[in-house]
Amino acid sequence: MENERHETALHHAVQIEEGRIMGHKERALLDAAHPAGEEKSKVDADCAPEEKNIVKLLMGADPQLANYPSEGISPLYLAILLEKSTTALTLYNMSGGNLSYSGADGQNALHAAVLRDRDTVMIEFLIHWNKGLTAQVDKDGNTPLHFASSLFYWTGSYLRLALLRRPPWCVFVWFPWKSTQTLQKVFKANPTVVYQADKNGSFPIHVAASVGAKDAIQFFYDERPDSVGLRDAKGRTFLHVAVKKRRLSIVFYVRRTRSLAWILNMQDNDGNTALHLAIQTRSFRMFCALLGNRKVELNLINNHGETPCDISRSKIPCGMNYRQAIYFFLIYFQASSPLEYTHMLQTVYISEPRE
Is the sign of the CA dihedral 130, 134, 140, 141 positive or negative? Predict the structure, then answer.
């Protein structure tokens, strides 16, 4: 029996099931899901102490409950969303892998795991169970790779307690942690998804640029060099997006990477280069970052007939110091302004006395 939200008793059991760190039984179930350790794990699972709970009782009575609903929030999606890995593993094992992966707004369980499972354990198992999840999209056309590209964690390290055989018996050890860990798992399961755009025409690399995930940009470039040239529905590259969102670290990365010089002067559907946008956003630091690369063209004209120099005079309000600085640097580097030249001709013509 279900309620108005299409939830069964299993959904409620998943919600009230106590979340806890995986013990011996759960680790045995984890290994059982992997082909390499399947036989050994079955023995370990049988020998482990059994703990009855509502989820197991319901699944034992009717394993098909895990396969409902086929659309909407499934028990597996709910378990992962609530970060209850042990419950998710119970659902998979007791259903024999015959369960629904669907979630809210067209998402699937992998979408939820990408946002919730920072250590990537559940991500790895979802990919092993159903690799097709990597290409499925939500209502906005986002794949799990789009979600993974939007994650921005600082590259760093974390503490782990290590046990010793002699005093002091334990010690804290630093372990490195990479910000692209989740991204790598999802990408390597299905690399072609990097070329799949959402409903706004944005590819995963555009999503990464919008949040300032430089490591993700670098990862995409290393794995799929041609992906850096992908354009969204507005004709923008990831560099256009980074400039628009003021992601300075990404702009610096492009500037110092010689092999990326070819995208510096790419123009969007409005004819704007990254330099045009840097001036439009009134970011002097962004402007200087781009100007520091000699490959940047200073005199390209957009669809409105404007060069970067024109924009520095017309789009930035008077009285701003960086307006004068930007204009000074452009003139110093011999940037031309067709509009200024036209204005000069008109002034001369108008001021010239008629005969």
Answer: negative
Last residue of a domain, one of 87, 102, 117: 102
Q: What is the CATH number of the domain that holds 351?
A: 1.25.40.20
- Residues 230, 272: Cα–Cα separation, whole Å: 16
Residue 9 falls inside a structural domain: yes
49/25 Cα distance (integer angstroms): 7
CA distance 196 to 329: 40
Per residue in 158-183, pLDDT (tens digit) is 556 666 667 776 766 655 555 678 99
Last residue of a domain, one of 102, 127, 154: 102
Q: How far apart are CA 133 and CA 323, in angstroms?
A: 49
Two tokens, residue 257: 């990477």
Residue range(s) defining the domain that contains residue 7 = 1-102
Taking only the tens place, the pLDDT of each residue in 93-142 is: 999 999 999 999 999 999 999 988 666 789 999 999 999 999 999 999 99
Would the pTM count as exceeding 0.90? Answer: no
